[in-house]
Amino acid sequence: MKGIGALQILNAIENEGSFRGAAQALKVTQPYLSQFVQKLEQQCQGRLIDRTQRPLRLTAIGRYYLESRRRIAMIEAETAQYCADHAHLQVGLIRIASNGERTNAMLVPSVSEFARRFPGIHIELTLENHLEEIPDLILSGKADVGIVFESLLKNGLNAYPLYKERYLLAVPDTDEFSEVGSRFNTQGQYPLLTQADPVKLTSIPLLQTVLHHERTALLSRAVGREFTDLNMDVRQLGTRLAFVASGICSAVCQETLIGPYCAREGCRFLSLENILPIQTVVIAWNDSLYQSRASRMLCDLVKESLNQDSKTLRGRAFSVLP
């Protein structure tokens, strides 16, 4: 009698038209069936079976109750199926806090591979976030993982370190700057800013991002001569490089983000490693919240694509159910 409930019993009575036939179909005794229905009718405060007709028929309450049980059974089956699909990475959601440039430069290979392996997982890329905004997005639960600098991590966050990031100064690749810096190269060989001619460096204004006007003063102190700011702020690196290539300004950029932009061919670069600290780029998550298997798998793919080991910065791996 295990597993026999109101849905099965009312279905059997509706199909067989009698208690005897329903009892035989369900392989239970007729008294058991009668007692079950009586208790059910007491709970529902009304008759579920019209006993005056032959074959027996469900009353209006009985039909409503049976249809409700069918809907409940369908919802339970759908829920069980969704949970199974979620456990096997056939459905789900990952919200990634990053920005368009960093996504282009480092996330495309691993996210593409993840999408091929798990096409049912929806990936939401929260583009155009400043690095400074990302830790709070993860801590508040608005993102599952994020790409950020280790130096910006806050209490409650853990991360896999990915690679070192160096700041460069981009200047126009023109005759005036032909002896300043080096063109973009895969070896990452660029002279230091402090080795360049400060007069040439400060002959054009500096194009800034929205949040970092303090860099003008830092660069000025480093070369002993005043930089001026161009009268605009530009958030996107690709746009900043395009303005530099046009010959009207210089701009600070992050080395690993330069690659996707053709405008780099119109620029020369100097290293700022002795002025702005080299940063460790990490993929971070909220260490105090449950992390789905999908989030864990994505972080592992990102880490593996950059040939990093599995050591976390704070000594704890994901809190994740199987």
Describe the protein's architecture and organization.
The chain has 322 residues and is an alpha/beta fold. It has ten helices and twelve strands. It has helices at residues 6-16, 19-26, 30-44, 60-87, 100-117, 134-139, 198-201, 214-223, 237-245, 293-305; strands at 49-50, 57-58, 92-97, 121-126, 145-149, 157-165, 167-172, 206-208, 229-233, 250-254, 267-271, 279-286. The protein has a five-stranded mixed β-sheet. The model is unreliable at 317-322 (pLDDT under 50).
Run of helices and strands: HHHEEHEHEHEEEHEHEHEEEH
Class based on secondary structure composition and strand pairing: alpha/beta
Low-confidence stretches: 317-322
**What does the average pLDDT come to?**
89
Output the number of helix runs. Answer: 10
> How does the overall form come out from the CA principal axes?
rod-shaped
Helical percentage: 25-40%
Span between termini: 33 Å
Radius of gyration: 33 Å
Number of strand segments: 12
Taking the sheet with the most strands, its summary is: 5 strands, mixed
How large a portion of the residues is in β-strands, by DSSP E? Answer: 15-25%
**Strand arrangement, largest sheet?**
4-3-5-12-6
